Amino acid sequence: LVARLRHGEVDFLVGALREGLDAKDLKQTHLFFDHLSIVMRSGHPARKINRLSRRVLLDYGWIVPRAGSPLRRHFDDLFAGGPAPASIIECNSVSASRVILTNSDRLMLLSDAQIEFEKAAGVLATRPHPHGPIARSIGLTVRSNWRPTEIQAALMKHMSRAGAAERSGL
Question: Is the pLDDT of residue 170 over 60?
Answer without folding.
Answer: no
